[in-house]
Amino acid sequence: MHTALVAGWAGSMALYELAVFDPSDPVLDPMWRQGMFVIPFMTRLGITNSWGGWSITGGTVTNPGIWSYEGVAGAHIVFSGLCFLAAIWHWVYWDLEIFCDERTGKPSLDLPKIFGIHLFLSGVACFGFGAFHVTGLRNSLSSYCSRNIGHISGPIPS
């Protein structure tokens, strides 16, 4: 439930900031002067384009792709809904005795195996996020060497 609330807040806050953000002058009126909180963090992770046709670098974009500012915000809202549904399912089926075999009285669920599967899938998701955003596998832009938008941080490639 907590993850659903946090992801929902992040997605809805990003959509709100996109609604009030003015990308027309990134030099004299940058995002931090406009009171943005979520968009700068999205930009540091490599999101630079919008479905509205603008880019944080100042140019126009014809095909921003799925993972634009709006796409990431929408993905957070969808993920929030899925986490909320998972929380409701776990709340409804909290009594594990309903998963017991009626003949033997023993649990029919292998709880350590289920817990391990959950941990494995969470680990794969976290590793995938890191692989795509830290190493630059998604595109040439990564959070450690995003030189084309002016963020100079991390190790300098030789």
UniProtKB/TrEMBL annotation:
One of the record's GO cellular component terms: photosystem II
Chain segments annotated as transmembrane: 73-93, 114-134
Keyword Membrane: yes
Subcellular location(s) of the protein: Membrane
One GO molecular-function entry: chlorophyll binding
Listed GO biological process terms: photosynthetic electron transport chain
Alphabetically ordered keywords of this record: Chlorophyll, Chromophore, Membrane, Photosynthesis, Photosystem II, Plastid, Transmembrane, Transmembrane helix
One Pfam short name: PSII
Membrane topology, from the record: Multi-pass membrane protein
Protein name in the entry: Uncharacterized protein
